[in-house]
Amino acid sequence: MNTKALTQLASGTNSRIVRIRGGHHFLSRVTSIGFTIGTPVLVLQNYRRLPLLVYLRDTQVAIDRREAEKIYVDET
User: Fold this and answer.
1) Helix ranges, the chain (H)
2) CATH number of this structure's domain 3-75
3) Domains of the chain, residue spans
4) Ramachandran quadrant class, 8 (left: phi over 0; alpha: psi -120 to 50; beta: rest)
5) How far apart are CA 11 and CA 64, in angstroms?
6) FRET partner for 29 with CA separation of 20 to 30 A, picked from 17, 39, 72, 75?
7) pLDDT of 29-75, one tens digit each?
8) Is the overall model pTM greater than 0.90, yes or no?
9) Distance of CA 10 to the CA centre of its chain
């Protein structure tokens, strides 16, 4: 599989979360909004300098680019 940071995916790309880097506070925050290992993610919008808009667990979520760089996915 080809593992990439979430920020590297184009709009419209389906993927699955395989790894999340970061400290306890960051991990707690992103898991509380649905970013967990194995979760399917659809990138709805990925424009430079703007937050990413993703769809996961039947919810649209905007996530800061710096945070999205710590979430690694495999394209499906």
Assistant:
1) 24-32, 65-68
2) 2.30.30.90
3) 3-75
4) alpha
5) 15
6) 75
7) 999 999 999 999 999 999 988 999 999 999 999 999 999 999 999 99
8) yes
9) 12
